[in-house]
């Protein structure tokens, strides 16, 4: 019963495909071994298999796409979930705009993680003074099935410039302003807790072509909270789910992110990327857990995160005109998050193998 509406969506999209020829398809499978998939202090590993498919349909100036992903946790079947997304969008050389709707469906035991999300965006790219300028604006609303205290909307505006030099150097500088507000405010012990967060990000990235098939980049983003939100004493359910969605919100923290990325193309067109990230994040509206149950509402959560990643990928054309391509990939990622809040001290190692076909 709960999947019936998604079945009808797929049928509707297939009907569009039958009456219009400009259609793209994709299908992929990813096998992942994660030493700590739920980002918990006491790790418990699981292998995860994801089956994904997509349909992209061009309707003159408007495109419509559907993405679906079913994720199987082999050690924790209660964590299995289906995620889907429908997008309407239009792209051109200078202007892009669209609307995106997605939701997550867990089984009955973890249905409290279900959510619906809708967003609209506008992007404008233009050239002035030998610099490519980019303006992005978007609005998003997210609602949860049971965790209604987390219902929120966000507004974002980005302005940045891209400057390339004959030396093979590219410099990107930008600013991003984010506003986030929780929809359900409440009182506790006669105190009203603020639910609005305003954030300013100062973004910089420098990339350099090293050789014909090698390149490197360094980046730094400074995150500033412009207002003074109070500690929000929400006690969330800690358990299955993507913790980054619910607790590690990049738009609700101050601090910085710095990192490096190196990319190389080897013989047989194998692309290898390796990167290192270091970040500090102060979640100014989130109190800490002193142990697994007790919260301290006088101290805000502060994290330090290290991460390392390496990946390799190769595209294999299945047709002479490259209209059908098989992409193979391998990924490894190590994450070490240190926090003054009990539930957010964790380490994890993730190995992934993937195969995707586009036609």
What is this structure, in a nutshell?
The protein is mainly beta. The chain has helices at 4-19, 243-246; strands spanning 23-34, 46-59, 62-73, 81-91, 95-106, 115-128, 131-144, 152-164, 169-182, 187-188, 191-192, 196-211, 214-225, 254-266, 270-289, 295-317, 325-339, 346-358. The strands form 2 sheets. A 16-stranded antiparallel beta barrel has the order 1-2-3-4-5-6-7-8-9-12-13-14-15-16-17-18. A two-stranded antiparallel ribbon has the order 10-11.
Tell me the number of structural domains. 1
Q: Which value, in Å, is the CA radius of gyration?
A: 22 Å
How many alpha or pi helices? 2
Overall pLDDT metric = 86
SSE string, helices as H and strands as E? HEEEEEEEEEEEEEHEEEEE
Written account of the structure:
The chain is mostly beta strands. It has a single domain (83-358), classed as Beta Barrel (Porin), CATH 2.40.160. The protein is 6% helix and 65% strand. It has helices at residues 4-19, 243-246, and strands at 23-34, 46-59, 62-73, 81-91, 95-106, 115-128, 131-144, 152-164, 169-182, 187-188, 191-192, 196-211, 214-225, 254-266, 270-289, 295-317, 325-339, 346-358. Strands 1-2-3-4-5-6-7-8-9-12-13-14-15-16-17-18 form a 16-stranded antiparallel barrel. The longest helix has 16 residues, at 4-19. It is globular, with a radius of gyration of 22 Å. 13% of the residues are buried.
């Amino acid at each position: 019963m709960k999947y019936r509406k998604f079945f009808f969506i797929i049928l509707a999209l297939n009907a569009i495909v039958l009456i219009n020829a400009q259609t793209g398809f994709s299908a992929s499978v990813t096998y992942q071994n994660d030493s700590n998939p739920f980002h918990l202090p006491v790790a418990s590993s699981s292998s995860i298999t994801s089956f994904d498919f997509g349909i992209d349909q061009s309707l003159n100036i408007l495109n419509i796409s559907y993405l679906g992903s079913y994720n199987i946790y082999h050690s924790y079947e209660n964590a299995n979930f289906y995620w889907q997304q429908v997008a309407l969008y239009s792209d051109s050389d200078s202007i892009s705009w669209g609307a995106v709707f997605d939701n997550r469906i867990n089984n009955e035991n973890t249905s409290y993680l279900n959510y619906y999300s809708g967003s609209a965006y506008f992007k404008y790219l233009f050239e002035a003074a030998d610099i490519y300028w980019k303006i992005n604006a978007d609005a998003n609303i997210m609602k949860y099935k049971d965790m209604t205290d987390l219902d929120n909307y966000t507004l974002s505006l980005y302005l940045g410039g891209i400057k390339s030099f004959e030396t093979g150097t590219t410099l990107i500088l930008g600013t991003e302003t984010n506003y986030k507000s929780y929809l359900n405010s409440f009182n506790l012990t006669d105190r009203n807790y603020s639910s609005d967060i305003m954030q300013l990000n100062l973004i910089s990235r420098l990339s350099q072509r090293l050789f014909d098939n090698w390149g490197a980049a360094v980046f730094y983003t400074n995150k500033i909270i412009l207002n003074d939100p109070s500690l929000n004493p929400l006690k969330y359910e800690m358990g299955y789910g993507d913790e980054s969605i619910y607790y590690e919100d990049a738009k609700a923290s101050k601090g910085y992110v710095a990192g490096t990325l190196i990319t190389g193309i080897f013989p047989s067109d194998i692309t290898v990327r390796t990167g290192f990230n270091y970040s500090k994040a102060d979640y100014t509206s989130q109190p800490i857990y002193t142990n697994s149950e007790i919260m301290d509402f006088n101290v805000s959560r502060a994290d330090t995160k290290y991460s390392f990643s390496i990946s390799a990928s190769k595209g294999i054309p299945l047709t002479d005109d490259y209209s059908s391509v098989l992409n193979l990939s391998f990924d490894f990622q190590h994450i070490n998050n240190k926090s003054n809040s009990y539930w957010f001290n964790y380490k994890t190692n993730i190995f992934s193998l993937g195969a995707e076909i586009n036609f």
